[in-house]
Write a structure and sequence with these properties.
The complex is a heterodimer of chains A (257) and B (330).
Chain A (H helix, E strand, L loop, with lengths): L2 H17 L2 H21 L14 H5 L1 H25 L1 H6 L5 H29 L7 H30 L2 H16 L13 H9 L1 H15 L3 H29 L4
Chain B lengths: L8 E10 L3 E11 L4 E5 L6 H8 L7 E6 L2 E2 L4 H7 E4 L11 H11 L4 H14 L15 H12 L6 E5 L7 H18 L2 E6 L2 H7 L2 E6 L2 E6 L1 H8 L3 E6 L5 H8 L3 E3 L7 E5 L6 H10 L4 E7 L3 H9 L19
Parallel strand pairs in B: 3-8, 3-9, 6-7, 7-8
Antiparallel strand pairs in B: 1-2, 1-4, 4-5, 9-10, 11-13, 11-14, 12-13
Helix pairs in contact in B: 3-4, 8-11
The chains are: A mainly alpha (257), B alpha/beta (330).
C-alpha cells in the first residue's frame, strides 16, 4: 500500500472520529461566531476611529474566527493523537506496515479537512451577514487555502505536544497559552491604532497578528501582497517547525525497530 | 542458537534495562517451536509484557538477540511485523470506531486486496462472534467483546505467529473459555505459533504445550506443564488446627512426614516425603497427639507449586510487587 493510500485511510479515520464527537465539531463552529458577534456588537464604534481600515467592524473582525478555528484544530489533532497513545492504538498501528509519515500526515489530513469545512462555514456566515469580499472569488479560494495552511500549522503543534507528552490533558493545557497569542494580536484593532505601547509591540512581535492580517486583507482590502506574503510565510514557517518537531517526537515515540 | 524455523521464536540472552537501572528483562533465552502454544507465566511486573514488546519489534532490546519467524527483531523489524499478529495487554481499540471500521482500517493498512477486505472482515467478525455488534461503536462493547475484536484485528493478515499478552485478564469465565477455544483452534488447525503471556495458572495449564515461568526478568523454569509438575512430584498436605495456639504442635507432627512449605497464615504445610498414602498416617499421628484439626487437605502439585519451589513465593501472592515498567521510549 502506498504512503498516500495509508494517509488517506488514516485521514478518513481522523475525520470520522472528529464528526463523532459533537463537541469537537460544534465548538469550533459556534464559539468563534459567538466571539465575533460579541466583539462586533461591542467594538463597532472603532469604525469611527480615524484610519480604521474598514467600514464595518464585523468585516474587519471576520478574520479572527479563521485563526480561532485553527486553534481548535490544534486541540483536536493533539487530543486524538494523545488518546491513541494512551489506549495503545498507536501500538496497533505500529504493528501494521503503516509508515510513520502516513500516521502524521493522516492525522493532519483529517485536521486540514475539518479546518477547511470550518473555514467555508465562517466565510459563508460572513457573506450571509453582508460582508463583501474585496478580493473576489479568487480571494475566497486563497482565503480558504490560507486558513487550511494555518490549521495544518497549528495542528502540527498539537501533534507535537501529543507525541512528546502522550497526554491529552497536556495538549488541552496548550490551548489557553495559544489563546493568549490570539488576544495579544491585532485581532481587534489594526496595529497602528493600538495606543498602548507594550501591547502594540507585543502584537507586532506576535506571528498570529500577521496570520490575521493576511486573512483580513483578502476580506477588506483586496490584494495586499505584503500582508499575504507575511501570512503565508508565517503559516508555512510555523508548519515547518511544527512538522519537524512532530516528526522527531514521533520517531522517539515509535521505538519500533 | 538453534537452527532457525520459519514459524518459530528464538531469543538469546535478551535484556532490556529501563531508566533507573531497572532490568525488566534480564537475560532471557527462548525457543518456541512452530505451531506450538508457549505459555509465558509470571506475576505482574515479571517482565512478560516487556518481552512481548521486544519480540513484536515495539521495543528494542538493550542487549541480546531474538529472531521471530526467522527474522531478527532489531534489524528486520518490518519483516517480523509482516509475519506476526499481536493482541497486547490493553485492547488497543478506538472507542469511536465500530468493530467493522476497525477491521476495514486494518485490512487496508495490511494491504489486503481491495476485493477481499470486506469478506475477510466479515469472516473474522463471525469467527469471534461479533457479527451483531459489528456496526456499533467500540465504546459500547463489553471487556470480552473488546478482547475478541482485538484478536480479530491481530488475525487480519493471517499471521504465522500470534502474540497474546494476557488476553483473558478481566474476562468472565465464558468469554475466557471461548477465547481459549479459538486460540487452540488457531494452533491446532492452522498451525499458528502462539506466544501467550498469562498470570493465570489454569490458562497456562490448559492451553500451553510448554510453559516458561518468568520472575524478575528471568526464566526460572521451563517445560510442559506435566514436566514442570513432575519436578515437584510430591503432593502437599496442609492442615489448620482448631485452636491457633496448637499451630506449633501441628507443625511438629507434619514435619515427621516431609519438609515444610510456605502456606497461608494459620496453617502448616509439608511436601510429603513418600506420597499421598501418608495422609492416613498423618491423621492418626495428629489424633495420637490429641490435636483437633479444623481443616486438612492434600493437593497435587500445580504450576503454582512449581513457581513456589523456584522462587520461594506463591504466584497468586506475587502480584502486589513492583509493577513492570511501561515499555515505552526511554
Amino acid at each position: 500500500m502506498t504512503t498516500a493510500a495509508q494517509t488517506a485511510e488514516l485521514a478518513r479515520r481522523s475525520v470520522v472520529r472528529t464528526l463523532r464527537q459533537p463537541a469537537n465539531v460544534v465548538a469550533p463552529l459556534l464559539f468563534p461566531m459567538m466571539l465575533l458577534a460579541v466583539n462586533a456588537g461591542g467594538l463597532n464604534s472603532a469604525e469611527q476611529l480615524p484610519g480604521f481600515p474598514a467600514d464595518s467592524f464585523f468585516a474587519f473582525a471576520l478574520a479572527v474566527p479563521f485563526i480561532q478555528g485553527a486553534l481548535f484544530a490544534t486541540m483536536n489533532a493533539g487530543t486524538d493523537l494523545a488518546r491513541d497513545i494512551q489506549t495503545g492504538f498507536l501500538n496497533r498501528l505500529s504493528l501494521s506496515p503503516m509508515r510513520s509519515v502516513a500516521l502524521l500526515a493522516g492525522q493532519l489530513g483529517g485536521v486540514v479537512t475539518i479546518g477547511l469545512v470550518q473555514a467555508v462555514f465562517y466565510l459563508g456566515v460572513g457573506l450571509a451577514a453582508g460582508v463583501r469580499l474585496e478580493s473576489g472569488v479568487t480571494g475566497a479560494v486563497v482565503l480558504l487555502l490560507l486558513a487550511t495552511l494555518i490549521a495544518l500549522a497549528f495542528g502540527s503543534l498539537g501533534a507535537f505536544a501529543a507525541l512528546r507528552t502522550g497526554s491529552g490533558e497536556a495538549v488541552q493545557g496548550l490551548f489557553p497559552a495559544l489563546f493568549v497569542f490570539l488576544f495579544i494580536s491585532s485581532m481587534n484593532l489594526p496595529r497602528n491604532l493600538i495606543e498602548i505601547d507594550w501591547f502594540r509591540t507585543a502584537a507586532t512581535l506576535n506571528p498570529v497578528s500577521y496570520l490575521i492580517e493576511g486573512v483580513r486583507s483578502l476580506i477588506i482590502v483586496g490584494w495586499d501582497t505584503q500582508a499575504l506574503a507575511l501570512a503565508f510565510g508565517f503559516a508555512f514557517s510555523i508548519g515547518v517547525v511544527g512538522l519537524t518537531a512532530a516528526s522527531w517526537a514521533l520517531r522517539v515515540r515509535l521505538t519500533r525497530t | 542458537m538453534a537452527e532457525r524455523e520459519p514459524n518459530g521464536i528464538e531469543a538469546e540472552q535478551l535484556v532490556r534495562v529501563f531508566k533507573g537501572d531497572i532490568h525488566a528483562v534480564d537475560g532471557i533465552d527462548l525457543e518456541v517451536a512452530p505451531g506450538e502454544i508457549y505459555g509465558f507465566l509470571g506475576p505482574n511486573g515479571a517482565g512478560k509484557s516487556t518481552t512481548v514488546h521486544i519480540l513484536t519489534t515495539l521495543l528494542p532490546p538493550t542487549s541480546g538477540r531474538a529472531t521471530v519467524a526467522g527474522f531478527d527483531v532489531v534489524h528486520q523489524g518490518a519483516k517480523v511485523r509482516e509475519a506476526i499478529g499481536a493482541a497486547l495487554q490493553e485492547a488497543a481499540l478506538d472507542p469511536l470506531l465500530t468493530g467493522r471500521e476497525h477491521l476495514r482500517l486494518q485490512t487496508a493498512l495490511h494491504d489486503l486486496p481491495r476485493a477481499d477486505r470486506r469478506s475477510r472482515a466479515q469472516e473474522l467478525l463471525e469467527r469471534v462472534g461479533l457479527t451483531l455488534a459489528a456496526d456499533r461503536k467500540v465504546k459500547g462493547y463489553s471487556g470480552g467483546m473488546k478482547r475478541r475484536l482485538d484478536l480479530a484485528l491481530a488475525l487480519v493478515h493471517r499471521p504465522r505467529i500470534l502474540f497474546l499478552d494476557e488476553p483473558t485478564t478481566g474476562l468472565d469465565p465464558q468469554s475466557r473459555t471461548a477465547l481459549w477455544d479459538e486460540v487452540a483452534r488457531l494452533a491446532r488447525s492452522e498451525g499458528v505459533t502462539v506466544f501467550l503471556t498469562t498470570q493465570y495458572l489454569e490458562e497456562a495449564d490448559v492451553l500451553a504445550d510448554r510453559v516458561g515461568i518468568i520472575d524478575h526478568g528471568r526464566i526460572v523454569a521451563e517445560g510442559t506443564p506435566a514436566e514442570l509438575k513432575a519436578q515437584i512430584a510430591r503432593p502437599t498436605v496442609e492442615a489448620s488446627p482448631h485452636d491457633p495456639s496448637e499451630k506449633g504442635a501441628v507443625a511438629a507432627v507434619l514435619e515427621r512426614f516431609g519438609e515444610p512449605t510456605p502456606c497461608s497464615d494459620g496453617s502448616v504445610a509439608v511436601r510429603l516425603a513418600h506420597g499421598e498414602e501418608e495422609l492416613a498416617d498423618i491423621v492418626r499421628a495428629l489424633d495420637a497427639e490429641d490435636i483437633r484439626i479444623a481443616r486438612i487437605h492434600l493437593h497435587e502439585p500445580t504450576l503454582d507449586d512449581v513457581f513456589l519451589a523456584k522462587t520461594g513465593r506463591s504466584l497468586e501472592g506475587a502480584d502486589e510487587e513492583d509493577p513492570e515498567p511501561v515499555p515505552t521510549a526511554t
